[in-house]
């Protein structure tokens, strides 16, 4: 099919004009004394949410242009993706043109490019190519590609064979998987070299390695391997950024070696998105802090040796300025519940919450009853008292890029299975793969994966350069929603067998559902992080 990158460029430019125009209008209406006012912005949440989603896609499409220049298939994927983004914008704006500040004919002359990019022939051509090979070109440097291959083989040999059993029986992650990954150095990927890890210190390479490895392990299984690196990354980053030298020396080398597993205890039954409201308290008593209250959804909290606990050390009125971050040490427990009497007094009692997917990691509700944590476990010491919120949020920012990589792994796994099934299955006497609709679905999967991947790589580059917080949030939001569609359609292509537990694709679908909920629920990410930044930029550029 004859399409050119210029067609994509024209379309993306038209989309960008709409996004910038709507952002400028919303920014003006949400400003109070030159700053974005959340209450004013919230009066237009419907527009703000849509604008955030669309802006994430348009930014991904802009990043795809460089990918599109790398080869023929890459061009086709880029043009088709640009058409898809434009169609998505049109659907969101229809009937709401006034709020968006656009005319009915907003595409103008770009309508010609739009039609070419939306043509069924283009999708058919892409479908044809990906049916022959579901491994889309990545254009990684050799060293990263070698690391990718190594972790892919590990996922194929060790993770995939146990993934179904762990999921179906909600079992623990086998110790051999954890020790195997520790031997491969996975837990040290984001810990700096001086603390026993492999990170060069927040370089592009560090973030790229994390993305590439996470994708491959998540392709093996989200619950058994792809999420193991998330919590050491979050706790490790908080310690690197804010820990005292003693804390860094004590914990980071063992985290890097995979000797200490980590959990993150932030969410509470009444406070998830609204982190500033957290109630679990840590009250100073001599050389200890006494922790009381209930944390929930603490993933890997049983197996973990260290919990990164965000607790209230100030008054409730201090909101986010009254929170401090602690490292809580505990023994590792197998299974779905545990009770632990602390070495220095107090108790924690926990039970895992049954979930539809993401099994293996087990997410716990943990009740702290007078649990005594040594004062030296306050991250950063007294200097960081009541400053834990900032450390935690900073640590979460990288976690978002990692979650995008987890979404990529799930999408790639589902896509590969869909290609195999479509080629093998005959319906009405012909291969499923020969139908136009099947090929169009596979084509859309392919360009969504390619776009999310490219955007994730770009976000890694930006984070390595000390920028990219907005992009990391955008790629998380976009990829996690894309993963729902890709896994859903892959399941659908499998017909009845897509609903059978013995087919991995049924697991991919339930696993994908969690991605838009944790690490920043999608609506919170859109309305409190992405759109805010966009409006601030719009105000700054006038
Ligand atoms: C499997 C799993 C694992 C998890 N692992 C961890 C973990 O390891 N550690 C940890 O601390 N937490 C963890 N979480 C918790 C997760 O981070 C929270 O569930 C998430 O932050 C949302 O909080 P909530 O569940 O309280 O939902 P709520 O905050 O009650 O949100 C409910 C709904 O309201 C929407 N919403 C929120 N704010 C707004 C707004 N201003 N306007 C409009 N809509 C809004 C949300 O997007 C959501 O759709 C995990 C959750 C799950 C499901």
General description of the model:
The protein is an alpha+beta fold. 56% of the residues lie in helices and 12% in strands. The strands form four sheets. The chain has a five-stranded antiparallel β-sheet, with no helix packed on it. A three-stranded mixed β-sheet has the order 3-6-7. It has a two-stranded antiparallel sheet with strand order 1-2. Helix 8 runs parallel beside helix 10, helix 14 (388-424) packs antiparallel against helix 15 and helix 14 runs antiparallel to helix 17. The protein binds flavin-adenine dinucleotide (FAD). Flavin-adenine dinucleotide binds at residues 264-267, 272-273, 297-299, 355, 358, 363, 514, 517-518, 521, 523-524, 527.
Can you give keywords for this protein?
542 residues, alpha+beta, five-stranded antiparallel β-sheet, three-stranded mixed β-sheet, 12 strands, 12% strand, binds flavin-adenine dinucleotide
Radius of gyration: 24 Å
Strand-and-helix sequence, N→C? HEEHHHHHHHHHHHHEEEEEEEEHEEHHHH
Helical segment tally? Answer: 18
Overall geometry comes to globular
How do the helices and strands line up, and which of them pair or pack?
Elements: H1 5-30, E1 31-32, E2 35-36, H2 38-42, H3 45-68, H4 72-93, H5 97-100, H6 111-117, H7 120-132, H8 142-169, H9 175-183, H10 204-220, H11 222-226, H12 230-242, H13 245-256, E3 262-265, E4 281-285, E5 288-299, E6 306-312, E7 323-329, E8 337-341, E9 347-352, E10 363-374, H14 388-424, E11 426-427, E12 430-431, H15 436-464, H16 469-493, H17 504-513, H18 522-540
Parallel strand pairs: 3-6
Antiparallel strand pairs: 1-2, 4-5, 5-10, 6-7, 8-9, 9-10, 11-12
Helix pairs in contact: 1-3, 1-4, 1-6, 1-18, 3-4, 3-15, 3-16, 3-18, 4-6, 4-7, 4-15, 7-15, 8-10, 10-14, 10-15, 12-13, 12-14, 14-15, 14-16, 14-17, 15-16, 16-17, 16-18
Bound molecules: flavin-adenine dinucleotide.
């Amino acid at each position: 099919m004859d399409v050119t990158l210029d067609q994509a460029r024209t379309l993306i430019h038209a989309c960008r004009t709409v996004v910038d125009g709507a952002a400028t209008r919303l920014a003006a209406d949400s400003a109070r004394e030159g700053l974005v006012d959340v209450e004013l912005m919230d009066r237009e949440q419907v527009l703000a949410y849509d604008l955030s989603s669309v802006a994430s896609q348009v930014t991904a499409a802009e990043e795809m242009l460089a990918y599109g220049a790398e080869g023929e298939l890459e061009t086709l994927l880029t043009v088709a993706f640009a058409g898809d983004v434009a169609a998505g914008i049109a659907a969101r704006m229809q009937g709401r043109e006034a709020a968006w500040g656009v005319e009915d004919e907003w595409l103008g002359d770009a309508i010609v490019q739009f039609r070419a990019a939306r043509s069924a022939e283009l999708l058919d051509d892409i479908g044809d190519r990906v049916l022959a090979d579901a491994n889309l070109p990545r254009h990684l440097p050799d060293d990263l590609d070698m690391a990718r291959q190594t972790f892919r083989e590990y996922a194929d040999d060790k993770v995939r064979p146990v993934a179904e059993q762990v999921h179906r029986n909600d079992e623990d992650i086998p110790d051999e998987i954890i020790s195997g990954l520790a031997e491969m150095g996975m837990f040290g990927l984001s810990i700096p070299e001086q603390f026993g890890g492999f990170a060069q210190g927040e370089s592009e390479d560090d973030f790229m390695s994390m993305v590439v490895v996470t994708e491959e392990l998540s392709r093996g299984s989200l619950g058994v391997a792809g999420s193991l690196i998330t919590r050491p990354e979050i706790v490790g980053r908080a310690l690197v950024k804010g820990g005292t030298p003693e804390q860094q020396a004590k914990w980071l080398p063992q985290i890097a070696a995979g000797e200490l597993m980590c959990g993150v205890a932030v969410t509470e039954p009444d406070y998830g998105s609204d982190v500033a409201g957290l109630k679990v308290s840590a009250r100073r008593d001599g050389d200890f802090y006494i922790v009381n209250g209930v944390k929930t959804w603490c993933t890997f909290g049983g197996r973990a040796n260290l919990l990164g606990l965000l607790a209230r050390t100030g008054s409730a009125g201090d909101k986010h300025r009254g929170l401090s971050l602690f490292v809580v040490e505990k023994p590792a427990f197998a299974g779905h519940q545990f009770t632990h009497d602390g070495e220095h007094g107090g108790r924690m009692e926990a039970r895992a919450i049954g979930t539809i997917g993401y099994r293996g990691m087990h997410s716990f509700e943990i009740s702290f009853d007078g649990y005594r944590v040594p004062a030296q476990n306050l991250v950063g010491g007294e200097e960081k008292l009541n400053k834990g919120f900032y450390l935690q949020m900073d640590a979460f920012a990288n976690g978002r890029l990692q979650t995008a990589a987890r979404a990529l792994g799930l999408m790639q796994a589902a896509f590969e299975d869909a290609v195999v099934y479509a080629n093998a299955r005959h319906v009405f006497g012909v291969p499923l793969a020969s139908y136009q609709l099947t090929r169009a679905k596979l084509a859309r999967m392919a360009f969504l994966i390619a776009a999310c991947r490219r955007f994730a790589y770009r976000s890694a580059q930006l984070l390595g350069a000390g920028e990219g917080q907005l992009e990391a949030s955008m790629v998380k939001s976009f990829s996690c929603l894309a993963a729902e569609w890709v896994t859903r359609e892959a399941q659908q292509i499998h017909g009845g067998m897509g609903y059978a537990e013995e087919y991995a694709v049924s697991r991919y679908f339930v696993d994908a559902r969690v991605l838009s909920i944790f690490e920043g629920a999608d609506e919170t990410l859109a309305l409190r992080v992405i759109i805010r930044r966009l409006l601030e930029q719009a105000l700054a550029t006038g």
